[in-house]
Specification:
Low-confidence stretches: 35-50, 209-214, 435-461, 560-594, 625-629
Strand order of the largest sheet: 1-2
Mean pLDDT: 79
Structural class: mainly alpha
Number of strands: 4
Oligomer: single chain
Distance between the termini: 34 Å
Length: 650
């Protein structure tokens, strides 16, 4: 009998010559022979047994990939046979079987080669599910058939996921993918591969439930597990978990020193209700929250006091203003001297005659101050500048609401009184520009003498006019007026309630109304940064108010038994675990074991409710990237299982 090498040579010659019948008979004969004969040439066997692990592994990978290619070629040839009536499929099958037998003879006893061969089969068949799934998914999307599209996703992932589909679709997808992949290695194993592919999603689901239950049992007993429970509770009770987490992540102090709580920073009514429940059931948290609220009130008050004027600060500011402007005013009034008031009285008479000023208060205000000016007029038609200045101060008192009774009512003729004040200022200013200096000043240098054309003082000794004095006084008075206005705001928004340190608590409602009703006036009177402070103070107070009142408080049992609730939800699911009877009976029994863990979790929850950044970190859900990274190896394992478990080389 010829040796195996001679038989293989004969098979190759028959195949090359197109002698299908001879090739088939030789292939059947070779397969019927033992794997080794006495006269067989040991070349391939020697390679298999004597080659290194890496070489055998590599050869196995190549053979495994060729197994899939050979099966594909066999399918194509068999299909051609049905069309052309040939026996090409039998010839290809014979060649495939001969190649497999030759490999088994040379590497059959090599573990590395067997592992490599399975790996090659798996690698070569992995794209099959993706290709089939893409076709099915594309058809489903194009035909608006969401379940078909979900099946395509299930085929692609080996049944590990099905967008919009349930476990049944995942099982079907796993079966299709598994059967196709296993069948490409060995058509006889297609049914077994389909069964394994269908079982993988079911097994994964069961293992996932077991994992959840185990996690629910052990999670309350270690720090990271407790943090996960706290994060889950924060997300569960938040009205909008994602929006709340985003707000918490970017939270900071709106007012320096006023550190916000989670309820304040998130603006979430659900978290506000949770915070109040913890406050009612956890004395330690209640104490920390009270201290935080006291610190917030002190910071807000200090921020406003820092820009507002207290009596000491205002006194110093006014003294500095008066020191700068007092001598200027006196100098101008001295130079103005006796002021001609003919034009002034004429302007007031014109206002009295104006039909628009015919109202009683307008006539009363204009007439009263005209009479005052006239009563001080000398025979030459002048009034001393200091008298006019005194009358001007009375007009200011009326306009600023400092007078009461009938005199106070004159402020309702404010437009007319401002015109009278402007006319007074023009008269004093004109006189101050025309005034002469004492004769002794005529003896000075020419540069300090009275200029005949301008009536003023020229050179380095030039004197300010009345309008220049008024502008300087207004500039120096502006920060004082702002401090007085902010001091007035502070007094208005302080309530009769005091915090733990005895400081008056500020009212959000009062500040809201003040900014709503006086916003335009405040914008004119205050500097932009001062108005910004009031707006930020308003935001901080409103956030605190929301934390104290918004949302519905959570049941105390829910907060006190987070560890037990976590276990019940892991085992029974969210629906059944939320039944009050289940919570009551199981909670009391489990509290024997989880009592200490519940206390630790409550402490972690308390700390998280005081720390927005920590709460944001705990509320961070598993992102799409981390889910996809976990899904990739699971999908690969699911798609590899049908081939790996059906391969005869495993």
């Amino acid at each position: 009998m010829a040796g195996n090498d001679q038989l293989y040579d004969a098979l190759r010659r028959a195949d090359a010559a197109g002698d299908t019948a001879s090739a088939t008979r030789l292939s059947d004969y070779i397969r019927s022979q033992p794997s080794a004969t006495p006269d067989a040439a040991p070349t391939q066997e020697a390679k298999g047994q004597g080659g290194g692990v890496a070489e055998n592994l590599g050869m196995g990978l190549l053979r495994g990939a060729k197994d899939v290619v050979d099966t594909g070629a066999q399918f194509l040839a068999s299909g051609f046979d049905k069309i052309a009536g040939t026996k090409e499929g039998e010839r290809v099958k014979g060649l495939n079987d001969a190649g497999k037998a030759e490999f088994d003879k040379g590497y059959g006893d090599s573990t590395a080669a067997s592992i490599g061969r399975v790996g090659g089969q798996v690698a070569a068949t992995l794209p099959v599910g993706g290709a089939m799934g893409a076709v099915v998914k594309g058809f489903g999307a194009g035909a608006a058939l969401p379940r078909v599209a979900a099946l395509g996703d299930a085929i692609t992932t080996g049944g590990m996921s099905a967008s919009g589909g349930g476990l049944a679709i995942r099982t079907l997808g796993g079966a299709i993918s598994g059967g196709a992949q296993a069948g490409l290695v060995n058509p006889d194993d297609a049914g077994t591969g389909a069964a394994i592919g269908a079982a993988v999603p079911l097994a994964a689901r069961a293992l996932g439930q077991v994992g959840k239950a185990i996690g629910g049992v052990v999670r309350p007993f270690y720090g990271a597990g407790q943090d996960k429970i706290v994060g889950g509770a924060l997300r569960e009770f938040a009205t909008d978990p994602d929006a709340a987490r985003a707000a918490l992540a970017g939270a900071g102090e709106v007012i320096p020193g006023s550190a916000p709580t989670v309820a304040m920073a998130s603006g979430d009514s659900g978290l506000a209700g949770l915070s109040r429940t913890v406050q009612a059931n956890n004395p330690a948290f209640a104490g920390e929250l009270a201290a935080r609220q006291t610190a917030q009130n002190q910071a807000r008050t200090a921020a406003l006091e820092d820009v507002a004027g207290n009596p000491g600060k205002l006194s110093l500011a006014k003294q500095a203003r008066d020191d700068l402007t007092g001598s200027m005013r006196e100098n101008v009034l001295d130079r103005a001297g006796e002021v001609p008031v003919g034009d002034l009285l004429g302007r007031i008479d014109g206002m009295l005659a104006n039909p628009n000023n015919a109202g009683q208060l307008s006539q009363q205000a204009l007439g009263q101050f005209r009479s005052r000016i006239g009563s001080f007029m000398a025979e030459d038609g002048t009034v001393n500048a200091r008298a006019l200045y005194a009358i001007r101060k009375d007009i200011n008192d009326v306009l600023e609401g400092k007078l009461q009774g009938e005199a106070g009512n004159l402020r309702y003729a404010g437009g007319q009184l401002r015109q009278v004040r402007g006319a007074l200022d023009d008269a004093i200013d004109t006189s101050s520009r025309r005034a002469s200096v004492p004769a002794s000043r005529e003896l000075g240098p020419l540069s300090q003498r009275v200029g005949p054309e301008t009536g003023g003082i020229t050179g380095d000794a030039a004197q300010p006019t009345w309008l220049q004095y008024l502008r300087t006084y207004a500039t120096q008075s502006k920060p004082i007026n702002q401090m007085e206005k902010l001091s007035e705001v502070l007094q208005k928004i302080q309530t009769g309630t005091v915090d733990a340190q005895g400081n008056a608590v500020l009212s959000a409602a009062t500040l809201n109304n003040l900014l709503k009703n006086q916003g335009e006036d405040l914008a004119r009177q205050l500097a932009p940064e001062q108005l910004s402070l009031l707006r930020r103070l308003q935001a901080d107070l409103n956030a605190s108010q929301l934390a104290s009142n918004a949302g519905r408080a959570v049941g105390s049992n829910t907060v006190q038994n987070l560890a037990s609730g976590n276990l019940l939800q892991s085992v029974m699911g969210r629906g059944l675990s939320g039944v009050p009877a289940v919570q009551g009976l199981a909670g009391r029994a489990l509290n024997v074991v989880y009592g200490g863990a519940n206390a630790q979790i409550q402490e972690r929850l308390s700390q998280a409710l005081l720390d927005p950044q920590r709460a944001a970190a705990l509320m961070q859900p598993k992102g799409p990237l981390s889910r996809s990274l976990a899904a990739v190896p699971l999908s690969l394992a699911a798609r590899a299982a049908p081939v790996a478990l059906t391969s005869p080389n495993r």
